[in-house]
């Protein structure tokens, strides 16, 4: 376990909207899709946190472009940095893992990213598919979604 945590701690970060965003989705224990509780625990174990739904909405207000070749969104503070990997944040369309059968669905088609924000027994997440974005969707915490960790500056 310490090797996984060490890799996450030294991960490259990108500064956007007053936060340090990990440059890649979290991957731990051979997985890259986590239920909400596991996502929160992984964040805490690494001294980071999940972004709030407001922070995810604010992120999407930045210049962004769907990359049909890499299958995901590039977001940046400046239009001219969108295609520069060192200055933009890329969110891959990694799909999701079903809580009912554990199957992976929509890889390369949709992106589903947990937020720290909750509503009763549900949690908000950031969803996208090609040109369609729903920055404040809500779902059961049991689904396996992608996780992008942040740190306050």
How would you summarize the topology of this molecule?
Layout: H1 2-9, E1 13-16, E2 19-22, H2 36-45, H3 53-60, E3 64-67, E4 72-75, E5 89-92, E6 96-97, E7 104-105, E8 111-119, E9 122-129, E10 132-140, E11 150-152
Antiparallel strand pairs: 1-2, 2-11, 3-4, 4-5, 6-7, 8-9, 9-10
Give the helix/strand class.
Answer: alpha+beta
Which regions have little confidence, pLDDT < 50, spanning 5+ residues?
A: 1-9
Question: What is the string of helix and strand elements?
Answer: HEEHHEEEEEEEEE
Number of helices: 3
Number of folding domains?
1
Q: What is the makeup of the main sheet? A: 3 strands, antiparallel
Q: What sort of overall outline do the alpha carbons produce when their principal axes are compared? A: globular
Strand content: 25-35%
**In CATH, what is the class?**
Alpha Beta
Description:
The chain has 153 residues and is α+β, with helices and mostly antiparallel strands. The protein has a single domain (2-152), classed as Mannose-Binding Protein A, Chain A. The protein has three helices and eleven strands. It has helices at residues 2-9, 36-45, 53-60; strands at residues 13-16, 19-22, 64-67, 72-75, 89-92, 96-97, 104-105, 111-119, 122-129, 132-140, 150-152. It has a three-stranded antiparallel beta sheet with strand order 1-2-11, with no helix packed on it. The chain has a three-stranded antiparallel beta sheet with strand order 3-4-5, with no helix packed on it. It has a three-stranded antiparallel beta sheet with strand order 8-9-10. Strand 9 (122-129) and strand 10 (132-140) form a beta hairpin. It is globular and about 40 Å long.
């Amino acid at each position: 376990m310490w090797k996984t945590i060490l890799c996450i701690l030294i991960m490259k970060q990108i500064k956007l909207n007053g936060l340090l965003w990990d440059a890649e989705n979290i991957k731990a224990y051979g997985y890259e899709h986590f239920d909400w509780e596991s996502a929160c625990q992984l964040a805490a174990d690494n001294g980071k946190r999940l972004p709030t739904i407001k922070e995810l909405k604010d992120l999407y207000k930045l210049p962004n472009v769907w990359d049909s070749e890499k299958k995901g969104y590039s977001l940046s503070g400046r239009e001219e940095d969108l295609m520069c990997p060192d200055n933009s944040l890329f969110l891959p369309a990694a799909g999701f893992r079903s809580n009912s059968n554990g199957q992976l669905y929509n890889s390369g088609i949709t992106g589903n990213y947990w937020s720290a924000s909750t509503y009763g027994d549900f949690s908000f997440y950031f969803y996208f598919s090609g040109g369609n974005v729903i920055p404040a969707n809500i779902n059961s915490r049991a689904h396996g979604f992608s996780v992008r960790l942040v740190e306050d500056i």
